[in-house]
Design goal:
The complex is a heterodimer of chains A (113) and B (113).
Chain A (H helix, E strand, L loop, with lengths): L4 E3 L2 E5 L4 E6 L7 E6 L6 E6 L5 E4 L2 E5 L5 E6 L8 E7 L10 E2 L3 E6 L1
Parallel strand pairs in A: 2-11
Antiparallel strand pairs in A: 1-3, 3-8, 4-5, 4-9, 6-7, 7-8, 9-10, 9-11
Chain B lengths: L3 E4 L2 E4 L5 E7 L5 E7 L5 E9 L2 E4 L6 E3 L9 E3 L8 E8 L8 E2 L3 E5 L1
Amino acid sequence: GQQLNQSPQSMFIQEGEDVSMNCTSSSIFNTWLWYKQEPGEGPVLLIALYKAGELTSNGRLTAQFGITRKDSFLNISASIPSDVGIYFCATTGSSSNTGKLIFGQGTTLQVKP
Amino acid sequence: NAGVTQTPKFRILKIGQSMTLQCTQDMNHNYMYWYRQDPGMGLKLIYYSVGAGITDKGEVPNGYNVSRSTTEDFPLRLELAAPSQTSVYFCASSYEPYGSPLHFGNGTRLTVT
């Protein structure tokens, strides 16, 4: 089946550093979504991308829909302690009419004050 | 506005017991989903529903059942609990299948011993 490969698996960084993570697949997708999950809570949508090459920002977060439609990147600038959590990439795959999402394995981010 | 509410938050089951994980949403969303989250594995879709009276299998449906008698409620049933069903379960809903974010509940942590 369709699979998303997310990297890195985990990151431990100093407050103020920039963060980059990415998601790749062997399949072509029409949507890339980035979610953040904080401890004890469900994932929350950060950024949605619907067009190849699209670059979208949400505060200190910037995400890009890869031009090949097989990958996406999420960058966090000037990290702060509240950025801690698990970041997931996701896509609707070939089933966009049902809303089913395929998730990557997640990138766990820890920020040292 | 409560959003998506899941109960219970935690549960310990013995092998072979049964239970129902409750999920209700007050946003009048037609689309609802059950995911399970295992460490390092991302979220896997168990079952989903595109409207009251309609349900379908996701990626990992074995050992589970669902029903959707109303728009608001989407309970997940485990008939014969097994250790492999130890996981965190998330219910989610969305207004439309494409271009609309998933709203997640805060999860149910289930341990089967």
